[in-house]
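Run log, item B.
One chain of 429 residues. Sequence copied directly from the ordering sheet:
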Amino acid sequence: MSGNTKPKKILITNIVTLNPGDAAILHGMLQILRAKYGEDVEITVFDRLADVAAKYYPWASFRQSFFGNEKKGYFSGKLRDLGYGHWVRRLRYWRLRLAGILYLSRLQGLARVLLNRSDFESVRSYLDSDLVVSTGGTYLIENYNLAPSIYDYKLTQAFGKPLVFFTQTLGPFRKEQNASTLKEIFNRSNRIFLRDERSKKNLLEIGVDSRKINLAKDAAFTIVARPDAQPPRATGAAPLRIAVSVRSLRFFDGDEVRIYENYKNSMRAMVIWAVRELNADVTFLSTCQGIPEYWTDDAELADEINQTLPDDVKRGVRVDRCFRQPLEIVKAYESFDLVIATRMHSAILSLVAGTPVLGVAYEFKLEELFDQLAMDKALLSIGSMSETTSVHSLKSMVESLDVWKNLVLETRRVCQAEANSVIAGLPHL
């Protein structure tokens, strides 16, 4: 933008950037939004843990989300004690909405009476914005609490702001209330970008207008690997280097104890095989680690698995606990020959790094991604994996590592283009 045109103001909402996978999405979103609306576009990120996010990601401008991490006061505590906790968020929504109406009616003094200073400034940000973008990722699934996002969407649309859903995986919505509420929100939105056909099917099943839906790749694919990245080492030049990303399965349904123990045993078996049979150097290194303020740290599960390894194997294994920025994660994965990835963004950033990846799917989003990329043979599922099948898959990949490397380099180029396709689909402001 240039001349006397005012820079556009865009809000990114519903994000928890303390998950570095979400930070990678945010990094890609900022690139895409600046490509569409100009380098001078003003972007504010409404994060559910804004103060802490600002500490780790100084390259973005954060404000606290309205919903999802509200401060608990005396009145809200009493309502919860009486079994009316759901009214706390509902009353907050109506107070924010009324304040916005008063502000637009030039009754700013009354609006200020309803809100504290931070909320008042945040309401002004919403009212002054040209576009609100609900972040990409995986958070609109019924394993999680959808209420914070739903109230944020309702407030955005009550303020008359165009709403875009950035590239994500979502659904299915089996609860009638969720399906009904989200159908209305989606159909009133400007555009919905999805990462996979199954998510599209989930929206069509609840009656969302197909004309609003576009398929694209995850925003993190727009991250560009270093131009000076080193080519893969010649076979036999040095011990194979393998990175392993693990994660807890706390939020997911099914026979959790059996699945979780089987998952850990299978990951353990692959590490043992890699060290004993390949003399490999193995490093547990995930996208979600090194942030004590976040609810989980993948290094803790890595430690748990590492402690169960035989002594002769432990000597070839290291647990990396460092926090890294998205570009630093890519740089780290560039130094490995193979990544075993449970985290979706460990898989994506491995592909961005040009490093072959063996995926471990705990949700359908990774299955859909690998199916799109014709990489089904490089995918394990927590529901069916075993120690034997996991080792077999790892062995098969190692034996064809050069083939996988070439495939990944071509895949990276295609995925980057498809992630950037969002630029054309964003609304003109």
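Observations after the first pass:
- The radius of gyration is 23 Å.
- The longest strand covers residues 163-170.
Flagged for discussion on Thursday.
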